[in-house]
Design a protein that fits this description.
single chain; Spore Coat Polysaccharide Biosynthesis Protein SpsA, Chain A; 12 helices
């Protein structure tokens, strides 16, 4: 993290913005994010401009000089008595793309009740006519399963691919994609339930943009609290879901949860990607059978020059962990998770402190976006005199 004086010595810099304390609460900011800016997320952010800058807003600076002319100071230089203007979620973005064939790949094994909700959501709560389903059977074949497949087949093309090996999400996804035909691939957990008819139009539209890598959605628990609003590197030593567990009312006023914006990574529980991009990075890495496979996939897409995107305006329900159980349920699972974490760290250690969506003011041990107290001071030489 660069200190303010070092930032100001960079000739391209025309504006700075910073964290702030409002009503006694520390409000950390991410690095400048054009997608968030277009949604008005930086409207209340304290900003400072160089003497030769004619513009008076961050957006004007970006329009005139480019995004590189704006830098963040991860320190609360401003204190306010109240939170200021309440953020209003923006209208849903429109991504006209035509209707590319979308192949939803759904690995499944145990919970037929959850698979039924997933398939029903696709059949009755998804207004997308060009959809095929590939269910990857990881050892579940029975009368109930076949009945669900037969029922789903009345609404769209359904293929069943058998893979009876030990659970390996990466292998199951790669197997499913190989059996599919869509221009857009949708990784979908069997415990994810659609609730909004237009969601797949938005996901497919974003995925079809030429610069797009992985596209993720806002996922909520059945009680409405946040399960996924993008993955942030640096939490818990590797990565985690920032804002996980945030209550619905607070989430609604949080621009980083509700607005579409770039992310380093998104969860594979609901992830859309062009087939050409999937093939470009050779799919999911089977060295990550359970954990980190989706994050590794996203980072390899980014490494290939693509941008991963979070659709905060698209929402589905995630009954997380019910179809497979939690990762720390047994000693063997904990051992496996530690092995995968070590592999992930070895491959991506250089990126773990470089996520532009993570503020050093956040408590890195928490996933809910809890900040340090209002007296937090970032390390380094952060002494800077700024005139009001």
């Amino acid at each position: 993290v660069q200190a303010p004086r070092a930032i100001l010595r960079r000739p391209e810099i025309k504006a700075l913005f910073c964290d702030f304390v409002a009503g006694g609460v520390l409000t950390p900011q991410p690095q400048w994010n054009p997608s968030l800016a277009r949604c008005g997320a930086f409207a209340e952010t304290p900003s400072f401009f160089t003497a030769d800058a004619n513009e008076t807003t961050l957006q004007c600076i970006a329009d005139q000089h480019g995004d590189a002319a704006i830098a963040r100071i991860p320190l609360p230089l401003v204190k306010r008595s109240s939170a200021g203007v309440q953020f209003t979620p923006p209208p849903r973005l429109s991504d006209p793309t035509g209707l590319p064939l979308v192949s939803a790949i759904i690995p499944t094994k145990y919970r037929m009740d959850l698979l039924e909700k997933c398939l029903t959501g696709l059949a009755t709560k998804t207004d997308y006519p060009n959809l095929e389903i590939v269910v990857v059977d990881n050892g579940v074949t029975n009368e109930t399963f076949m009945g669900l497949i037969e029922k789903a087949s009345r609404s769209f093309v359904v293929r069943v691919v058998e893979d009876k090996g030990s659970f390996n999400f990466s292998r199951l996804m790669n197997t499913g994609v190989s059996a599919s035909q869509g221009e857009v691939v949708l990784s979908l957990n069997d415990d994810v339930e659609a609730t909004d008819k237009g969601w797949l139009h938005q996901m497919a539209g974003s995925a079809m943009q030429p610069h797009a890598g992985a596209v993720g959605a806002r996922l909520i628990y059945p009680d409405g609290s946040i399960q996924h609003a993008g993955v942030v590197l640096g939490l818990g030593g590797t990565c985690a879901h920032l804002w996980r567990g945030l209550d619905p009312k607070t989430a609604l006023s949080n621009p980083y949860v509700m607005s579409p914006s770039n992310r380093m990574a998104v969860t594979g529980a609901c992830l859309a990607v062009r087939r050409s991009a999937f093939d470009r990075v050779r799919g999911f890495d089977e060295a990550f059978p359970v954990a980190y496979n989706d994050i590794d996939f996203c980072l390899r897409l980014q490494e290939a020059g693509l941008q991963n995107f979070y659709r905060g305006d698209v929402c589905l329900i995630h009954h997380e962990g019910q179809s497979r159980g939690t990762d720390d349920a047994t000693v063997s699972k904990r051992r496996r998770q530690s092995v995968e974490a070590a592999k992930f760290f070895q491959r991506w250690a250089d990126l773990l402190d470089k996520d532009p969506n993570f503020s050093p003011a956040f408590d890195a041990t928490r996933e809910i976006g809890i900040a340090h107290d209002a007296n937090y001071a970032a390390p380094g030489d952060y002494t800077l005199s700024l005139r009001a």
